[in-house]
């Protein structure tokens, strides 16, 4: 029985057997020195740091603005829901722009361009004197986040050797988590305006570092800049001899030449094109439906509504630290355990955590509810502060964040950049981000409305059901890409065999 491509092992496996053998040593790219690729990755993922920082900016700021002494800045419940959710509309617009910019400017320049709306957005929020400045600043930082979310994973996957692509592919999510944790930590020390000022720093550092980094060799080859592409690959592999990267360069070159023309709608109907795009889209859709964005955006208000032992802002910082640790674990194990194993573990943990939160809200101790329509902060969640049951919301949220950060957080971004066909990668990655953030907007905007109408347990039960669906989807549709080059993955989808679904 023939072994499936993605399960094939051995350094001499050739993705393109019909072509002539490449001259020079057949060295797997992952075996080469790749110190400089880590520097290029770090420069790029600073954009994700700013994205993670901006995403949860509302967590400590909404409670502060709800009690602001300035009537022009004091937020009502409706205004707070817009302030929390408008970021996702900006991110959707950024993902839509990435469909054009990713292939027009290239991955690196698109990431650098995101610094413009990001810096303006932070400046608007830092100097806000009215709601419109807060909403516009939040939208602009969301636009920058959506743009980087589509461009950075593609850039990282295209410069990384296969042996470390899993670990490097987790760094965008890792830096986003670190950005969120930094916001939670600074929120304990700084007023909300200075939190916006602090967000400017990583943006400028990112632009400075990226100006010294090369473009993606695949993008350069797609533009016919072969000599520049070879120099970029040689620099990224930390070698001075172009022969050391000749085999990898020719593999990339062959794949780019095969797909030099733009993809047509007729070709999209071919299984080898639409199947990976559909898998990536559904993964981004399910990732958001697990509830991660509304939970992160309203994390401190959620803890404000619970009877927990620690202050809500401390609980939010603890959850952020757990999230960071979990992504580190995923980064270290992704190239060892594989993508699918971590996705199964991730969805299982998230299901248990969401179910626990829903049952606690529905069946746990309650405080008397007011007769009028309530906001999130008045939902009856807990009993007395001395009860051990008051630890349940914090622990369940910690496990949910841990489960998400171990699998469905970083791996969906990594798989998106791995399985999308090269000819459609720029457009398809932008489409994935667009779908993701439109879903996030719908969830974030409706979260408070559902809580007011039906209770906080209803969203958590819904999220738990989605996690079960994610388990089925992973088992049936998600391929294992550990240890494969991007060319091998794409060639695998072209075979038409269904073994990648197992």
Description of the structure:
- With 502 residues, the protein is mainly α.
- It has one domain (34-219, 255-501): MFS general substrate transporter like domains (Growth Hormone, Chain: A, Up-down Bundle).
- 70% of the residues lie in helices and 0% in strands.
- The protein contains 24 helices and no strands.
- The two termini are 15 Å apart.
User: What level of helicity do the residues show?
Assistant: 55-70%
CATH architecture: Up-down Bundle
Overall 3D form: globular
CATH topology: Growth Hormone, Chain: A
Q: Termini distance? A: 15 Å
Radius of gyration: 23 Å
- Please trace the helix and strand order, writing H or E for each element: HHHHHHHHHHHHHHHHHHHHHHHH
Number of strands: 0
Sheet with the most strands?
Answer: none
Instruction: Give the amount of beta strand, in percent.
Output: under 5%
Region (Disordered): 1-28
Protein name: Solute carrier family 2, facilitated glucose transporter member 6
Membrane topology: Multi-pass membrane protein
Domain Major facilitator superfamily (MFS) profile: 40-482
